[in-house]
Amino acid sequence: MAIIEVVKYDGPAGVFAWKYPNQELGTWTQLIVNESQEAILFKGGEALDSFTAGRHTLSTANIPILSNVVNLPFGGKSPFTAEVWFVNKMNSMNVKWGTSSPLQLQDPKYQIMISVRAFGQFGVKIEDPRKFLLKLVGTLPLFDQDTMVSYFRGLLMSNINELISSYLVHKKISILEINAYVVEISKHIQGRLASSFLDSGIELNNFFIDSINIPDNDPAILRLKEALAKKAEMDIIGFTYQQERSFNTMEEAAGNPGNLGAGMMNTGLGLGMGFGLAGPATDMMNRMTRGMSLDGGTAAAPGASSKSCAGCGTLNPADARFCIGCGQSLQPVPAAASSTCHSCGKPVIPGAKFCPHCGESLIIKCTGCGHELQPGQKFCAECGTRAANG
User: Fold this and answer.
1) How confident is the model over 211-225, as pLDDT tens digits?
2) Which domain does 282 fall in, by range?
């Protein structure tokens, strides 16, 4: 095979490292290295020397180690075999990455398992070409973006899975809210990966998560979104799920008159009271039970022979002693005997021991023997002394 006179980069664009295909070189061979590149000469797996941008002659004068490795006379012209690697040191900002299969994560807020996919990109620069070639490239003919992603895929996926999970737990958020934190997560992942990349001679400049996606057809997500939409609707209206269930029960009871309907409404009212619905549930019950009797008939029609319940408004027969709608007594309550304070003369509650107006004790005692006198008593029954207010 003919000796190569000129060696220069002729590889594809966008690769990090490319090996010149011919190894037949001579001490007169010219090596041309472009800007932002570095060329490294290998012999038997050992890096002999590196060359920066410019034109170089592969002579023993420029590469003294050649005389020892390939037994060339110093200053002589002789052919030899060696590998020439070109390493591109420019910043590459668009190395794409993505999860090949969904990550299985548990949503800490709703306690469901969700399949998650993540996509993004990162930027790198070959900081130490010799270390990069020795640790990663090996016998490959070239090293491109796909090769780099495949090398670091395990490291990427383990860190992404761990950090997304930890953010869900520590921030106490749902996976549906995770996209609000992608910038923060990206910075943490870059910090985790930087040292591992640097061990291989690569500087990790930027790391971005473009999106964290959840499959729209995931049954768990569909149920969760439906529940959240229902909750939002009820929040706007102003009641809870338990209240809605109670209202539904009472509405069903209203459409089923009779003993069963009344029983169901009583149950519904009990549920409403249990869930803090005393006001709304009672109002609804009053409206639904008005005109419905407990024995399956209808309440008394408005007229001369009926009376209205003060509690629920249901019309009852004139001779009814209790309301057929709510059971409240319809008997008139006798007025309590009036009483006044003997000090200030203002009305007080019967049986009270102190006046609510002036604070004076309402217990009257005989000035002669100290015996307690009843309200209205003018003389002491024990000693006959006239009461002070008698």
Assistant:
1) 888 877 778 778 877
2) 241-317
